[in-house]
Amino acid sequence: MFVNEEAESLSKDDIYSMLSNRRRRLALSYLRQTEDKVSVRDLSKEVAAMENGIDREELTYKQRKRVYTSLHQTHLPKLDDVGVVVYDRDRGYISLTPLAADLDTFLDGTTDRRISSWSVYYLGLSGLSLLVVGLAWTDLFPFSLVSDLGYALLVSLTFAVSAAVHVYTERVSLEGGDPSVSGFLTDVGLRDDD
C-alpha cells in the first residue's frame, strides 16, 4: 500500500483506502482549505467540531482528545506513508503535498481545478480547425484544392482520433497502466514489451 515518495500520482487503491474513513476525509478537507502547515491540535479541534456538528468552542475535552489520539496514532501516519501529507510528529505539524491534488475530485465532487492538458489541446485544435475552415471558405490557394467535404472529414476525423486517444489515456491511467505512446503500441499489439 505504500507508494514511492517520488510517485507522481496515487493508485486507485490508495485513494479509496485513504478516503474510506470519514475522519481522514474531514482532515483532508480541512487541510485543503489552509495554505500553510497546521498543528495536530488545531486539526483535531476542527475535525471534532465537524464530526459533532458544533463550533470549536463548544467541544468537550473528551471529544477533542478522542479525535486527536486517532489522528496522531493512525490517520496522519497513514496519510504520511502514502505521501499525501507531510506529518512532522516531533513538532506536531501537518501540511499537504502535491499528491493531495489527486484527491480533489473525490473530496468535493468536482473535477480538478487545474486546467488539464487535454482541455488546452482541444481548445487549440478547435482554433486550428476554425482557421482551416475559414481559409477553405475563402477559396484561397492552396485551400481551394480540397473540397468542403474533404475539410469536414479532416476536422471530424481529427476530433474523433483525438477523443479516442483521450479516452484511452484516461482509462489506462485510472487502471494504473502506462498511458504513453509506447504503452498504447504495446496494448494494441504493435510492439513487444520484451
Automatic annotation (TrEMBL):
Q: Quote any Pfam family the record assigns.
A: DUF7344
Is Cell division tagged as a keyword? Answer: no
Annotated InterPro entries: DUF7344, WH-like_DNA-bd_sf
Q: Which residues form the DUF7344 domain?
A: 17-94
Q: Which Gene3D superfamilies match?
A: Winged helix-like DNA-binding domain superfamily/Winged helix DNA-binding domain
**Keywords of this entry:** Membrane, Transmembrane, Transmembrane helix
Q: Does the keyword Thylakoid apply?
A: no
Q: Which domain of life is it from?
A: Archaea
- Membrane spanning stretches: 120-137, 149-168
What is this protein identified as? Answer: DUF7344 domain-containing protein
Organism per entry: Halogeometricum limi
